[in-house]
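Pilot study result, target chain (411 residues):
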Amino acid sequence: MTCLPPAAVLLLPLLLACSAGKQDTWVRPGDSLAARAAGIPEVRQRPVFDAPDADAAWLVEQIDGSGWDQGLADAASRLLALHVDRGGRIDAASAAGVAARAGYPGQARFTRALTGGGLPVDVAAEIAAATRGQPVDVGLAVRRFEDGTAMWIVAWARRVARLDPIPMRLDLDAQLPVRVELIDPALAHAELRLFLAPPVGPVEEIPITPSLTRWVDRFHTPGEWRIEVVAQADDRVEVALLFSLWVDSEPERLPPLQAGTPGVENPMDAERVLFGDLNRLRATHGLPPLQWFATFEPLVREHSALMASTGRASHTIEGITAGVAARARTWAYPAAFHHQAVAVAPTAAEAMALVVDSPAHRRTLLCETCTHATVGVALEPVLDRPPRLFVTWELLEFPKGPPVPNDQRGY
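Predicted structure:
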């Protein structure tokens, strides 16, 4: 059997800010079951009033004034997982680490014992003699081997004070309320001192008053912060609470990278959608629908393709084209009256929104004397970014009847 001696009192100084206007509320053990059931990690004693199994019931019965604590039991299980060698010893660093990770806020002690398979009777007797009926939290874990032997780790801690439940993890620059209630009659008039050890830098101290809340506002460094509350009455000094707090903030969430090239609209599909949107717009203004004029499809699509190749949305492009109306005079006979709108946008819906929001373009789309229309769409020929859509709306009126293609189209 190997016993870990009680750790020496470790003064971890701390600076706390008292926040005016905060209303004190005491949460007694067992009152935050819903929070624990929801998986909210917290630092506190976690008593279990009905022992979870026969081993736990036996240990509580052997030690007068003891109660089963799930936090200590979790710490014992963590320590047992670290010590698989039957001849190993419990080191102070491992003991402190498992208590911190389990969220137990006291000065925990751990004893390791090997038995022939029976209960650790001697360990229970030693703890009972050391505590002499004083309030004490206990927990244990066991590993049984194929040869019938058993390895036990028994955890225990004198319950000197209660601590309001606090989160084990805290955001950077957040405030932490710390409220301590002394329960040991011998410390009824003790002076409390609160110490805080940051991950890097000096330890700070501040006095606190039992049963009143102090608000800590010094958490400006990420990492593990060690908090200790010491009670002093006359010549007696007792570590009332000792626990760790992990401080950090979630990194800013970046938008996920797009997998591959974003989808590009089919120009032919976009033409049909835009023509339907055009007639729906006219209907909302009491105008009759337009008919699709297939004769000018090549001209309108050609104009959109020329705009896309130059990256310019324009009715004419100097040195390249004089526009659809000029091309139509050599394409078909007789001549038509043309009303044109052009736009460039990432999507057909955005292109439609652009022309609808423009008073001049909207008047073109709402031409009262027009009877036919053709819409041409072309994709911008680029590879380094998603291509834009270049759109041409060609609304037509035919005072001399619909044009028919010439025999010589004059390319």
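One observation from the pilot: The first strand starts at residue 2 and ends at 3. A full batch analysis is planned for the follow-on phase.
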